[in-house]
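Hey, quick one: can you model this chain's 3D structure?
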Amino acid sequence: MAREINKSKVAVCTLGCKVNQNETDAIVSSLIQAGFQEVPFEEKADLYVINTCTVTHLADRKSRQMVRRAIKNNPAAMVVVTGCYAQTSPGDVLGINGVDLVIGTQDRHRLLDLLEEAKAARKPLNVVGDIMQADDFEEITGEELHPHMVRAYLKIQEGCNQYCSYCIIPYARGPVRSRPLERVLEAAKQLVYSGYKEIILTGIHTGAYGSDLRPQMDLAGLVGELVRISDLKRLRISSLDPNEINEELLQVMTSSPILCPHLHISLQSGDDEILGRMNRHYDTAYYLSLVERIRRILPDIAFTTDIMVGFPGETEEAFQNTYDLVEKIGFSGLHVFKYSPRKGTAAASFPDQISPQVKEERSKRLIALGERLSREYARKYLGRTVEVLAEQRVEINGENFWEGHSGNYLKILFAENGDYKGQLVSVSLERYQDNVIFGHLKK
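Sure thing. Here's the predicted structure for all 443 residues.
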């Protein structure tokens, strides 16, 4: 039975990617505008919203756990479950006693109306539709604003048409839908007007931006427009596939100081046979040549990437090929994760599945390599002066520091008593410790 809802306290929990967090922020913004007060998820609230993830089996389990935790926090509250797990497995979500509303990955902009419908229905309401039929970018609400932050994520597209053999996300998010150019520019200007100094472009498949628009637009064209916005200090791009980085995008990067010298280019595997089985549309020679070409024109650029270990059929030789390529490229950061079979994807039925023990051992080896490469990249900057966007104060061993990031995404701390929040300052880098570079303000 649906609960009575009092427009007072809402608590939210977000699992998964930055896109999910961006969408949660927008949902919370719409609820606050409607009169709700946000409280921590651990507290008793009148409404709980759980934005779920389904990228792995562990994500599914964690999503269910957080739904049950909300119900335990306040059995009388209304409980809304949204996101990717809700989209792909609405029956499993509805099977949890105490859930009132299941939305999925569309119709979040109708949340307030759907809450009233769930209340009137006096039984759990499932509004999950066929996401494969979605054809418009969903505007949940006005841009989410957090006055305590200086960096903002800006979602520019939804959906994915890649169908990598291991990935469930196209079935959870549907086809590519791009946010119209004028709406992206309007949202970016609003963020800058509200005080944000850095904008990070994000999406489910960011590099596919504009392929569905008419007239057609691409990411390079969008970026070229965004860097012209007055008072925007930094623009950063989230994950791209290697075959989505064209000459036009590189031209913008070399000509505009606003575009951060940092690219997250997804690799997944350093073995060509595995890349083919993954249905990735590039090979290692192309990837390596791309990195080398970009480094020639942007010597200080930072490259980060995603690596999957334990994909079906990954022999020790194939893994070693990945290890060697990662070491050769010298990434400044790695996101390593273990392959997880997802029902409904091609790879789930592939032969030669890898044991959990082998996945764990390979994961540890790559993580250790990534940590070493991160140290080596960071230490190259000791003795240099870089521009840092001061984001927040942190305390370490009783000493206060300002924390921020350079354009190439080095985490930097400097000790100063003044208020530097949101300012771009010059910092001389002195020492590297615990994945952080310490420096002093150059006045």
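One thing worth noting: The longest helix spans residues 356-379.
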